[in-house]
Amino acid sequence: MIAFDYIRPADETAALHAATERPGARFIAGGTNLLDLMKLGIERPRYLVDIGALDLREVTETSEGGLRIGALVTNAALAAHPLVRQRYPVLSQAILAGASGQLRNKATTGGNLLQRTRCYFFYDPASPCNKREPGAGCSAIGGFNRIMAILGTSAHCIASHPSDMAVAMRALDARVETRLPDGQTSSRTLEALYRLPGETPHVDHRLAPGELITAVVLPPPPAGRQSYRKVRDRASYAFALVSVAAVVSMREGRITEATLAFGGVGTMPWRNRKAEALLIGQAPSAALFERCADAVLAEATGHGGNDFKIPLLRRTLVASLAKLTGGEP
Amino acid sequence: MSWIEADSGAALTLSVNGMRHDLKLDARVTLLDALREHLQLTGTKKGCDHGQCGACTVLVNGRRINSCLSLAVMHQADEITTIEGLGTAENLHPLQAAFVAKDGFQCGYCTSGQICSAIGMLGEWREGWPSHLGDRADAAPAIDAAEIRERMSGNLCRCAAYPRIVEAIEHYATHEGADA
Ligand code: FES
Ligand code: FES
Predict the structure, then answer these.
(1) Cβ-Cβ contacts under 8 Å, A102 against chain B
(2) Looking at residue A205, what DSSP letter applies?
(3) Closest CB from B5, B7, B153 relative to A100
(4) Residue A62 distance to chain B (closest CA, Å)
(5) Which domain covers residue B158, as residue numbers?
(6) Where are any strands of DSSP class E within A13-139?
(7) Which of A196, B66, B78, B175 has the fewest CB atoms within 10 Å distance of its CB?
(8) Which of B85, B116, B133 delimits the end of a domain?
């Protein structure tokens, strides 16, 4: 770990000021990903602004009937929050399907969104990796790539996004609120927070330097049933090979609303509105679910070691839809 | 509030097992290294140093965390409890006694992390926190082996003493949990 200057400001204004005072400064909250990467020399911040003392730990109801989740609410607290369990079970389930009890107690809402890929080569400074070192090449393309993405990839990077929480938030149409160094605030969807790797895979997101995530806002709870289904290499404490967050509502035997988001398969938490639209107005059936999976997978590309994710995503999606539209509560 | 410069080191106070300690540390020192190398509290173990094994688990304000993935300088406002604060050789914590009685270890390297994690985990269970297995903690009378396995998945045991670790925690939770 390289040496860094450290500060723990007492409030947002001081934190934003600190981050502009020393350009290149990084915010640190739970630290469960950033510190890990600093130990390996993969992240090398010279200035750390510890935001742990900021007043961003509340979950409150919004006037629209949604929830505002402070950026420092821990993953554990969010998953256990009564209103999240009651109204947004897909979010609670997604968080509890990830990491360990210890990590969830430390990891925060904002930090979880910005965690970096778990690609083996990104973590191994001895291997070329365009995300770690622009222009170095990608060791996963043509190499061992079992856990890599099949959607949103480029010729330069096929690393998958590791978050479970963000997948549920994408299905729930969450918005990310930030504050900029000049005090302005902004609000964006998760789609607008992240970026695809393209030719610059080292840039994961669209936040400006010194821009601080302050909250995630959930719209009023969607009608219908919700579920998070995750397939992984062991029963607990493993990243997703494939996951499906689904919210489906039915009336008189027909699907009236459906949102679907996918984890483990995309270079960002994935969503496909065309595939969702196919379901609307239809009666649930195996053929319908297969057509929906066809649409999700239309642009999927395997790289050899991860080809299995294509049928696995199909089956996981079909199983989720069958369960959510089936008879049992 | 001002910057601690990289080359100057941080003067800080840590509250560990009810005692306050003044330290002067490089800001890079993790909570784990502060405990082991600077306070000589070597009961907390370093396994992976990357948040993957749970050997370094301690309680911070009653919540279990991986002390290897946190900087000491971030914990000045916190109350830290390590295995040394739970029990001593002469006066074992009842969960330590359960690990001895049930043979919940072989080499013992993961044990302090297992015990600190289990104490935190049972607190979470009593507060009704859900797990990947569902929303059972509110309704269920006592924790069962399946819940213990799921909730303790962040603690690895290279000796694979898992069956006895689960037994020890289950025994403690059903017999002694009330006065924990
Ligand atoms: S030493 Fe901290 S989790 Fe392994
Ligand atoms: S008893 Fe040896 S690692 Fe668990």
Answers:
(1) 51, 54, 57, 64-66, 117, 120, 154
(2) B
(3) B153
(4) 24
(5) 94-174
(6) 26-28, 47-50, 59-61, 67-70
(7) B175
(8) B85
